[in-house]
Amino acid sequence: MSGEEYDTDMDYSDDDCCYEDYYNHEDDFDAEQLDPSKSDPEHFVFDCLTVEEVERLLNESVETLSTTLQITPSLAKVLLHAHGWAIPDIIVKYREDSSKLLVLSKVKPPHSPELFASRQVRHILCPVCVASQASDKFSNLACGHLFCRECWSMHFEVQIIQGISTGIRCMAQDCEVLAPEDFVLTLLSRPNTRDKYQQFAFRDYVKSHPQLRFCPGPNCQVVVRAKEPYAKRAICNVCKSIFCFKCGTDYHAPTDCATIKKWLTKCADDSETANYISAHTKDCPRCHICIEKNGGCNHMQCYNCKHDFCWMCLGDWKSHGSEYYECSRYKENPNIAHESVHAQAREALKKYLHYYERWENHSKSLKLEEQTLQKIKTRINKKVMNASGTWIDWQYLLDAATLLAKCRYTLQYTYPYAYYMEPGPRKELFEYQQAQLEAEIENLSWKIERAETTDRGDLENQMDIAEKRRTTLLKDFLEL
After folding, report:
1. Per the omega criterion (within 30 degrees of 0), is the bond before 191 cis?
2. Where on the tree of life does the source sit, at the highest rank (predicted)?
3. Strand partners, 139
């Protein structure tokens, strides 16, 4: 594949048009304006909240439970954190059997205030530091285990240094009673340590809340709140990160969270083998000259003999369209169950490499097409400077490039999905739709890279076809 070099000097920001921007402007389509929840399988209602807004939200829940059950806010936090902030469930359980609920939350009924008076103890031996001190120097949790305040304070500081906050337990052996927030803060004297504890506690509260998720973007403080039970694609309105709300990793539709975790683990374990077969260069199937892939499109044209072929299977591109599914589909060996153990192992590796090579190829194509997007921006900038139209006149080229990235991203994540699918009619349907999407993406990529000679109407029509293929596949196979 040959590509023209362009200047990279620009007088606008790289943020003018990107993959995230395309998702943020999906409502430009008329069909999605009517009812996004039905027309867009990735539609997901959520809010991006600041730390202050989340603190107010959590405090409202604490106040509600505290007032309803007539308990301290500190105990209310323990109960909410232990039971996923499900206030109705906690209220029902508490009213049915308060002692049972307290045991479930690892908090036992407190001792009588007359504890020390009844024992008439002036000095007590601390089990940790083995020092005898006056009883007013001791404190205890609901379990009644007494320790001097200095030992409590040291215990808390050690736990906080390790990043533990809501999980701090009593120092007594095998005691699982948790230390409430007010008890910890009362015994912490250093302001920095108190601040760290509150930060860690806030982190734990958010993580335990089913409707909240920290944005995984670097140094981003946004917390995303889901407004519906089935979490899908979330987009941070600050750092523009796109991620799966359910698991917090990179967005991976149509593959479900458990499957993508298995796939990424397998890729990490077998990376050396996969990298060995995933080469950057291949020989032209006609003239055998070495070709380096420098663009995202898999439709290759040899710069030497002008032969058109597929980068993945090296087949003739002219006959490739009608048989495209043969390139993306893995052909299972029907007799593999009767083969030797070594043969089955080789077949398993062959299958994995088939899917990994295509997964990795689309990942590389996405990076190469980012360069194409920058080149398009530069070309548009030059045209505008030369009075050859306005930015609005050439906006369709940017739209095409961002849509291509969106479609290819989805296509990349279809390969882990296909790898773990059981053979059968459903997999055949999936592979058919996958192949159709791949064919339209390659057509779109080919036309974008040759935008100077591509008719605008033809390009926009190809955009519409590619997006419809992507949406159809997700509607049929998106896993929640």
Report:
1. no
2. Eukaryota
3. 147
Q: 234 pairs with which residues across the strands?
A: 243
Question: Is residue 189 scored above 60 in pLDDT?
Answer: yes
Q: What is the pTM of this model?
A: 0.71
Which tokens go with 199? 């930060």
Query: Phi then psi for 226, rounded to 5 degrees?
Result: -80, 145
Quote the CATH superfamily of domain 115-208: Zinc/RING finger domain, C3HC4 (zinc finger) (3.30.40.10)
pLDDT digit string, tens, across residues 26-44: 444 344 444 555 678 888 8
The β-bridge partners of 169 are 178
Q: Which residue is listed with tokens 């940017």?
A: 398
Which residues neighbour 185 within 8 Å (Cβ) at sequence distance 6 or greater?
194, 197, 198
CA Rg value for the chain: 30
d(CA 8, CA 172): 65
Spacing of C-alpha 461 from chain mean position: 31
Task: Please identify which residue in the block is written with the tokens 């469930």.
Answer: 89
Instruction: Find the helix or strand (DSSP H, E) in which 132 lies.
Output: strand 132-134
Confidence of residue 332 (pLDDT cuts 50, 70, 90): low
* Given 297, 302, 327, 407, the catalytic residue: 297
- According to CATH, the topology of domain 14-23+257-477 is Four Helix Bundle (Hemerythrin (Met), subunit A) (1.20.120)
User: Residue 63 contacts by C-beta under 8 Å, 6 or more apart in sequence?
Assistant: 73, 76
Asked if 313 is an active-site residue, the reply is no
What pairing do the DSSP bridges indicate for beta strands 281-283 and 290-292?
antiparallel
Q: How many helices (H) and strands (E) does the chain have?
A: 19, 13
Rounded CA-CA distance 448/185 in Å is 60
